[in-house]
Amino acid sequence: MLWIKLSSIGLLLFPVMNGQDQLHIQFQNHAPISIERNSLNIPLVDEPIMDEKQYEELVSEVQNQVYTPPQNAYINDNNQIISERAGYKLNERRFRELVHSFFFSRGSINTEAPLMTLHPKVDSEILAHIRTQLIGRYVTYFNKHSEERTQNIVLATERINNTVVFPGEVFSFNGVVGKRTKEKGYKKAPVIIKGELSEDIGGGICQVSSTLFNAVDQAGVKILERYHHSKRVPYVPLGRDATVSWYGPDFTFRNAYNQPLLIRAKVIGGQVITSIYSSDLINVEKRKVPSASQNSSMEKDVDKFIQE
């Protein structure tokens, strides 16, 4: 059992504030929390008053125990839909009522933490509906023998995979992929900064954002924010790149269609493959997009780019 001592307490002034009276809060798959009534009381006052600071500390502790984020449905590597899972958080209104009732009563109370269900944004039904029509696809190539760059590409690709963009919603590459850090597994690899080639954490992920840009552009999606590198890159045709940086440029687009869009992205060997799907009801207006080089010299081009 987890015991909480919120603060040092003063003298017991009222019989109702029996120091042995406890609120035992039960959780699923967690040790219970117990709190004494008088540890919630403001000492040395003429009437029982609940200490709001101590109460907020209790709420924070309970919330940390019970919070479970919802999980969206997704499509696994075998192209099977894995069902969504609901999440939970503390129902703070009901919890306050419960603690308030305990505070102004006698005796101990055993109770379960009152929870609110958090529903996932994407369920199996939505995925089944929007995986039916391929509206955009783009493939780029890289040297898979560059281990650091490959790892960065794989990590960023995994982050955007299975993303659903609802009608009217804006997709942000930085927002979805998040900050690229060593703790998340990103490694130092070549990047272009102000026209100069250097090394930085996450080098290589611009190939992922550029592949995504060309896929959604082919699907006729409204591009909001896209920036070119200050130096030509070899993995896409001239002018078809989308540079990104956590503290700098982002790649964003808005889904102006009346159906959700599903991003499927994967790395196979030395290829980044990004596909955009939607439902059969979408009235897509595709654009022509030039393909990336598929020549065997592509890996040499990338090597030259890295070594320059």
Would you give an account of this structure?
The protein has 308 residues and is of the alpha+beta class. The chain folds into two domains: 2-118, Ubiquitin-like (UB roll); 132-307, no CATH class. The chain is built from seven helices and 17 strands. The chain has helices spanning 52-66, 92-103, 124-130, 147-160, 173-177, 205-218, 298-307; strands spanning 2-3, 22-27, 30-36, 74-75, 81-82, 87-90, 109-112, 115-118, 133-141, 164-165, 170-172, 188-193, 196-201, 222-225, 252-254, 261-268, 271-278. The strands form six sheets. It has a four-stranded mixed β-sheet with strand order 1-3-2-7, with helices on one face. Strands 9-17-16-10 form a four-stranded antiparallel β-sheet. Helix 4 crosses helix 6 (205-218).
Radius of gyration: 27 Å
Mean pLDDT score, rounded?
86
Number of helices: 7
First-residue to last-residue Cα separation: 61 Å
The secondary structure category is: alpha+beta
Biggest sheet record: 4 strands, mixed
Give the topology string: H per helix, E per strand: EEEHEEEHEEHEHEEHEEHEEEEH
Helix content: 25-40%
Spatial strand arrangement across the major sheet: 1-3-2-7
Number of strands: 17
Shape: elongated
What proportion strand? 25-35%
Number of domains: 2
